[in-house]
Amino acid sequence: MSQQTREQWGSRTGFLMAAIGSAIGLGNIWRFPAEAYKNGGGAFLLPYLVALLTAGLPLLILEYSVGRKYRKSPPVAFRQISKPASVIGWWQVAICFVIASYYAVIVAWSLRYAGFSFGKDWGKDPETFFSADFLHAGSEPGLPTSWVGGVFWPLLAVWLVVLLILALGVRRGIERSNQVFIPLLVVFFVVLVIRAVTLDGAAEGLDALFSPDWGALTDGSVWVAAYGQIFFSLSIGFGIMVTYASYLGRRSDLTGSALVAGFANSSFEILAGIGVFATLGFMAQANGVAVGEVVTDGVGLAFIAFPAVISQMPMGGLFGFLFFASLAIAGITSLVSIVQVIISAVQDRTGMRRLPAVWGVGGLVAVVSLLLFPTDAGLALLDSADHFINQYGIALAALVFLVVMGWVLRRLPAFQAHADETSAIRLGLWWRVCLGVVTPLVLGWMMVDSLRAEFDENYGGYPTSFLAWAGWGIAAGALVIGVLIALVPWRTAPRAEREEVR
């Protein structure tokens, strides 16, 4: 296998912008506010902070350490730790393939809705417009039977932009694009929040979000929700941060970088909560109902509730454009990081150069995305795949990773020493306890709790036959593919396996 000089970030700021761009995604805007509201309001910030300090940041530092130490994508980095561990890396690559294929579709929806905002094209019934007029969603979930041109063409544009950014490389493509997109995203969202808090009813919305219910802190599910939010919002557990850290210089400050990226991500989540609930407060007052009656999250918040608000508010067209443009920007920066994991893994495994890898492998992800999701079955398939690949892909892969590193191979002390070599803030026993005990226990409980819910009731009310292939099948398929790729013999050992890695 040919060896190539590893690309590097141009600066620490460039790396941080990319890491923050990956972490700040759709979940920050449409998941955190609803999670906080449902789990104690202002009181939720306490378990959220605890989760950040005991799970999010420690795991982020570990992934930075693995990536920088071995300077490879997850499959090759894990193989250098222990050959069987490469299964975890390829599992994460397969997870990224699935997520990238549907994540791009939501970015495409956001772009279309940014345009729809000026004319308020959804009319008086945003829900019917979204599912029937825009997506042409079928009445029953199943296999695609027709394509939707209104989604296909913006989705194609999204993929062309993402692949072009990746084709330009780590420094000229990913780093420079994030240096433009992240400041732009912050400006857009700050303007949006300022407008939101000046709306009638905004105070009631913010009061609903931040009024603390301290009694909720005695409920274990609230703490599980906090850990789940931190986990799914930091881009940890599926190879992104290992990959990004593999392009760092040898003397980079890992702990300090993790703190900056982690707290920047959380700050944006709180900002998003303010903007979303100020807007929902306006909607509740305009309709004469309580704030709790209009609270929703995910696709329903972005493409149904917010269009209804935009139709009622002064300067709604501009507000809508800023909101959906922010969604699109946040989505693109995250999507770039997800696809980069796949490309980097293929490059490291085969010695393929960047351009063939981007247009070949990245192009394959784009083709799968374009075949499956801009169809009448796209909405149900996206919803099911997202739920199962998150719950039984990302979270489960991270649990296995921590158990293997902490309990089986006992490599946490070595990675702590590696991070401490160049970090201003040194790690202590707390870091190993968090990764070896606290985070695995919480992730394990999340698995048990989630499985209990699955067996009590089918997710989303979907038929069992549909969930068998569009949910469980996708999650299990990612693991099976990871195992099969890991079993393929290497023609030559990677150079890093033949030389001692300092």
Automatic annotation (TrEMBL):
What is a single Pfam family found in this protein's UniProt entry? Answer: SNF
**CDD domains from the UniProt entry:** SLC6sbd_u1
InterPro entries xref list: Na/ntran_symport, SNS_sf
- Highest taxon above the source species: Bacteria
Q: Does the keyword Transmembrane apply?
A: yes
Q: Where does it live in the cell?
A: Membrane
Keyword Transport listed: yes
Q: How does it sit in the membrane?
A: Multi-pass membrane protein
**Gene Ontology CC annotation, any one:** membrane
> TM spans, by residue?
12-32, 44-66, 87-111, 147-168, 180-202, 222-247, 259-284, 321-346, 358-382, 388-409, 429-448, 468-488
Please provide the record's keywords in A-Z order.
Membrane, Transmembrane, Transmembrane helix, Transport
What NCBIfam families does this protein map onto?
Na_transp
What's the protein here called?
A: Sodium-dependent transporter
Q: What is the lineage of its organism?
A: Bacteria, Bacillati, Actinomycetota, Actinomycetes, Kitasatosporales
